C-alpha cells in the first residue's frame, strides 16, 4: 500500500465484524429482516452504547425493535450461544498469540443488578462485595492472553450460582486448550483466593500468581504484614469445608510516596506457585493484570444498553463488546502494521478503538440513512 492508498476503510471494518458474526452466529430470518440487518443494528447500538429501541428509531428503513428482539430470542440455548461466541472470539486473533509462552489472566466482569430476579434470571445472579449500591450482579468470567500490552479475550462464560470457582477455571482452560497455548503463568484476582482453587492449580502444575485476601486482626494472612521489608515464606490456608492447603507467599513492601495523596508503607501479599521471577519484580509483573481493567473500560465503551431480562441475550450483548475489541486488535495487527527486519511494527496510534467505533457507526449510518425529521401521528 502507498501513502495515498488506504489500508483500511470504514466499510471494510464493518464487513470484518459482520462476517465474524455471520460465520459463527448464524440466525434464521424471514421477510425483510435479514441477518446482516440485525447484526449491523447491534453493532451500531454497541458503538453508541445505545439501546436497540433507540437505534431502530435513529436509522431509516430498518426493522423495528420488536422484530430484532423476535429474532434474537431464537438464540434460546445459552450453552450453544456461549460456545458459538467463544468460537467467534477465537476466530480473529493476531498471529503472534500462538507463538511462545503466554501470560494468561482469568477474571470476573460484574454488571450491577437491581431489583428482584425472575425465575429465568435467578440462576445467573451472582452475589459479591457491594458495588454501586448492590451486592447482586450479572457475572461473566473471561480468560485473556496478555501480549505486547494488548489483552485479547479468548473465552467468556456466563457465571451461574451453582458454578464453583474451580469449575469456572476448568471450563475456561478447556475452551482455550485447542489453541495449544503454552501458559507461562496464570494471573487471578483475589476472588479466586481459596483452598479449592489453589489446590487445583497446584495439582494441574500451572504457574500462577494472585493477591491474598488480608484477613484477621493478629492471625490469618494479617500476620504476614510486618517489619519494613519484602520477603518470602510459606502459608497454610484453612477452610472448615475444604480442609487446608500450603503454598508460597511473597510479601512486597512499597512506599506510597504521595500516591493518592497518601504516605507511608503499603503491603502486597501474593500467593505464588512456580513463578520464575524475583521478589522485587512480582508486584510490577502482577500489575500487568491490572491492565485487564482497562479492557473492561474499553468494553464499556461498546456495550449495548439494555433492560432485557433474558440471560442469553444479555450474554450476547456483553460478548459482542469483547468481540469488537478483538476485531480491533486483529485489524491493527494485520492492517495497521508492517514487517520490519523479521519483526512487526504496529502503528496502533493510527487506529484507536474510538476511531474504529466511529468507522462502524458511520458505515452503518451511510448504509441506512439517519432520521432527520419527526412527524405527528395522523388524526
UniProtKB/TrEMBL annotation:
One of its GO terms (molecular function) is DNA binding. The chain crosses the membrane at residues 315-336. It comes from the Bacteria. InterPro entries: Transposase_11. Residues 100-306 form the Transposase IS4-like domain. The keyword Ligase does not apply. The keyword Membrane applies. Keywords: Membrane, Plasmid, Transmembrane, Transmembrane helix. This is Transposase, IS4 family. One of its GO terms (biological process) is DNA transposition.
Amino acid at each position: 500500500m502507498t501513502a495515498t492508498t488506504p489500508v483500511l476503510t470504514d466499510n471494510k471494518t464493518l464487513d470484518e465484524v459482520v462476517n465474524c458474526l455471520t460465520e459463527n452466529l448464524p440466525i434464521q430470518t424471514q421477510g425483510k429482516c435479514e441477518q446482516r440487518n440485525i447484526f449491523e443494528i447491534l453493532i451500531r447500538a454497541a458503538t453508541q452504547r445505545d439501546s436497540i429501541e433507540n437505534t431502530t428509531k435513529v436509522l431509516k428503513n430498518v426493522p423495528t425493535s420488536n422484530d430484532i428482539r423476535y429474532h434474537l430470542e431464537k438464540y434460546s440455548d445459552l450453552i450453544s450461544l456461549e460456545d458459538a461466541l467463544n468460537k467467534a472470539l477465537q476466530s480473529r486473533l493476531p498471529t503472534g498469540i500462538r507463538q511462545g509462552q503466554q501470560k494468561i489472566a482469568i477474571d470476573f466482569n460484574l454488571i450491577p443488578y437491581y431489583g428482584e430476579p425472575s425465575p429465568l434470571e435467578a440462576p445467573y445472579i451472582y452475589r459479591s462485595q457491594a458495588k454501586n449500591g448492590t451486592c447482586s450482579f450479572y457475572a461473566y468470567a473471561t480468560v485473556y492472553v496478555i501480549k505486547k500490552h494488548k489483552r485479547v479475550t479468548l473465552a467468556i462464560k456466563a457465571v451461574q450460582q451453582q458454578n464453583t470457582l474451580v469449575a469456572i477455571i476448568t471450563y475456561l482452560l478447556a475452551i482455550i486448550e485447542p489453541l495449544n497455548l503454552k501458559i507461562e503463568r496464570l494471573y487471578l484476582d483475589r476472588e479466586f483466593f481459596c483452598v479449592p482453587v489453589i489446590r487445583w492449580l497446584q495439582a494441574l502444575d500451572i504457574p500462577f500468581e494472585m493477591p491474598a485476601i488480608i484477613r484477621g486482626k493478629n492471625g490469618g494472612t494479617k500476620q504476614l504484614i510486618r517489619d519494613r521489608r519484602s520477603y518470602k515464606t510459606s502459608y497454610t490456608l484453612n477452610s472448615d469445608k475444604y480442609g487446608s492447603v500450603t503454598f508460597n507467599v511473597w510479601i512486597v513492601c512499597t512506599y506510597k510516596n504521595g500516591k493518592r495523596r497518601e504516605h507511608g508503607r503499603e503491603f502486597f501479599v501474593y500467593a505464588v506457585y512456580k513463578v520464575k521471577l524475583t521478589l522485587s519484580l512480582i508486584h510490577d509483573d502482577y500489575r500487568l493484570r491490572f491492565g485487564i481493567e482497562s479492557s473492561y473500560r474499553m468494553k464499556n465503551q461498546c456495550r449495548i444498553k439494555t433492560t432485557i431480562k433474558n440471560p442469553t441475550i444479555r450474554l450476547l450483548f456483553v460478548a459482542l463488546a469483547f468481540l469488537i475489541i478483538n476485531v480491533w486488535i486483529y485489524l491493527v495487527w494485520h492492517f495497521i502494521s508492517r514487517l520490519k527486519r523479521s519483526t512487526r511494527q504496529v502503528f496502533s496510534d493510527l487506529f484507536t478503538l474510538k476511531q474504529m467505533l466511529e468507522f462502524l457507526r458511520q458505515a452503518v449510518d451511510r448504509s441506512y440513512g439517519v432520521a432527520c425529521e419527526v412527524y405527528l401521528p395522523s388524526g
